[in-house]
Amino acid sequence: MTRKQKIMLWRIIAAVSLILLLIPLKPENRWMALGLYLIPYLIAGYDILRKAVKGVINRQPTDECFLMAVATIGAFALGEYLEGAAVMIFYQIGELFQSYAVGKSRRSIAELMDIRPDSARIRQEDGSLETVDPDEVEIGSVIVVQPGEKIPIDGTVIEGEARLDTAALTGESVPRSARPGDEVQSGCVNIDGLLTIRTTHEFGESTASRILELVENASSRKSRSEAFITRFARVYTPAVCLSALALAVLPPVVSLLLGKAANWSDWIYRALTFLVISCPCALVISIPLSFFAGLGIASRHGVLIKGANYLEALASTDTVVFDKTGTMTRGVFEVSGVHHSPLDDQSLLRLAALAESRSNHPIAVSIRAACTDMEKAGTLADVHELSGLGLRAELSDGRLLLVGSEKLMRQENVDFIPCSHSGTVVHIAANGQYQGHILISDQLKPGAVEAVHSLRQLGVSRTVMLTGDRESGAKEAAELLGVDELHSELLPDGKVAEVERLLADARGKLVFLGDGINDAPVLSRADVGIAMGGLGSDAAIEAADIALMDDDPRTLATAIRISRLCMRVVRENIAFSIGVKLICLLLGALGIANMWLAIFADVGVMVLAVLNAVRILLYREKKKGEA
Amino acid sequence: MKKSYKIEVDCANCARKMEEAANATPGVKEAVVNFMLLKMNVTFEDSADPKAVMKDVLANCKRVEDDCEIYL
Questions:
Q1: Which residues in chain B have Cβ-Cβ distances shorter than 8 Å to A98?
Q2: Domain's final residue, options A565, A582, A612
Q3: Which residues in B lie closer than 8 A to residue A281 (C-beta atoms)?
Q4: What is the mean pLDDT of residues B46-53?
């Protein structure tokens, strides 16, 4: 608690104890009672009265303090001393709670995003270390990061090895390893090694700073719900005040005209209860608090959302469009199978790798990568590249190898077995004898199938995959993933056209998930453009509305779940606070509700709305893979 | 030009009122108050001098909410 809050707490405690003493006393004399109840009233509310006077001077008739002062003084004037004092005390309790709860959640959300390093340790030319403000570190400086410390600035490791905890950035709990030559990002925590890093960015341009800036700006970009509440608050208070005035004057006057008793004090009391309910604080506080909590908890799970409006849109996702390469697949070609070989798999790979050992073709690279024991492969005597077909290689032991496409096999009259899978197929023959083939394809990411499945569980009605690949290649992946539609052989502008067509059909929001490379136009065309950011991929974070930092398509479902929770809380709070206020206004006008109920409508509702918003922070994702 | 200022304000509705007051100040193109971060992001008109404008913004904010503060 701050000093201000502590003083307030003591004032409230003092006022409440005095009231509790006064109630059993039941002072007989009217003036004595007034005097006695004024003491706790003033202890609790002297600052409200002071502000009320200032409000009048500044011509702010709808200032809360002014309204609260009018209501309570009015209660005293009507002889309701206890109520007058109690309403003021409860109002102050509400204010105290609000400032405490908001301060607390502000801190816990800030903790979620606690990735900003406080200092950096520079290694000087003579080897000594100096601790400085990270802002002062120039590009190209050499910094040292000890175990347990955050990496302050992006850079390249030049010495040392360590495991890095990237959870604060990606939500990923498995540590990454860093060794010399690796790029490392600020905000990661060095778990166990001593790292020496040459910085490649300034502090302000480093990952941690930029993520923080994004998240902070995100809560300034207001959602539609928030805009609605702001508009509502603008008319709500004046409207309630005018009704209060009307309620105080009209019914008595009408009664008088009809020749009945005016009942002034009864109607004025009802009008005063209106004033107590007139503050829109519960609404105004709970909505941005909910979004702020939503954005914070999302960033904890590796989902970087650039605006509350996107969080809002994400909750009503109806269509999800994926890019294939790099999004649902790894985006690199790997050996995915060895088929129909009389040799064991490694031996065949070894032969192929040997034949391809002088080639830089991507296929050759992936075959070599899959071959774990190149040293046993023997040596190459001679190799000829057969353009578009493959290779003819002669080994030192005299064997003649043919490595290449079906066409090559046919041309050389080798009896081969065609492959039934999609991807690039490399056939191998030795001395005219078929040795089998190697399948090389872009593999699906580990969580891709589960990702599509969980989207469907979340009620996404349409999943579409777009790709520039040929139909034959994409079809197998689409079937494995279980997406509803596949559109292949698309050029970049074809993807935009396809998304536009889907946008016209979509009942809810259309989300596009891409890898952020070459799909900027589609990302901006979709209602919500999501890039598989990955750490350190600046372009993706720039182009998209939301970035998934861990590069895992399953995180999209997490993001949608968080957005749904957040929007549910927002809707609950709007309905609950407006509902309770309207009911209390109605009951107040009918004379059923008294000021006690009115102060609950003001303070109690706010407390509940704030607690409801804080509930979002309790969101925990089930471990990936457990679904 | 865009600048960010740290602010001090007690309640959300007061923050909303500050935002309205700031937006009504000449020289301010757009002001957004972020109550959760206690920050005010102000975009100024091209011809405006931020220092002078912010003085007016502070005065206008004080008028609607006596208890607020903007750290210039």
A1: 11-12
A2: A565
A3: 11-13
A4: 88
